[in-house]
Design brief:
Structural class: mainly alpha
Number of helices: 3
Keywords: Toxin-antitoxin system
Helix content: over 70%
Distance between the termini: 58 Å
Radius of gyration: 24 Å
Largest sheet: none
Family: Belongs to the ParD antitoxin family.
Oligomer: single chain
Pfam family, one: ParD_antitoxin
Number of strands: 0
């Protein structure tokens, strides 16, 4: 494994030390690795969200020209669809 030097605030370092002292983690390196795993998961989730939004945008653009919609008719459409579901 590669060793890196990381600077943490006093608060962050204290939290890392607390996690090890409580027995939740075996070492400070384990705490940092777990934090990085969570960060990687969050970044992957964000990338998937952005990809979904791009697909939805593209689908919307491909669905045809825009149309004006007022709030009341939109809500009425939602109510009709909900009622049709039973």
């Amino acid at each position: 494994m590669r060793t890196l030097t990381v600077s943490l605030s006093r608060r962050q370092a204290g939290k890392v030390e607390e996690a090890v002292q409580s027995g939740a983690y075996a070492s400070t390196s384990d705490v940092v690795r777990d934090a990085l795993r969570l960060w990687e998961q969050r970044e992957e989730s964000r990338a998937q969200d952005v990809a979904r939004l791009k697909r939805a945008y593209d689908d919307g653009k491909a669905s045809g020209p825009p149309r004006a919609v007022d709030t009341e008719s939109l809500l009425a459409d939602f109510r009709d669809k909900l009622a049709a579901r039973g």
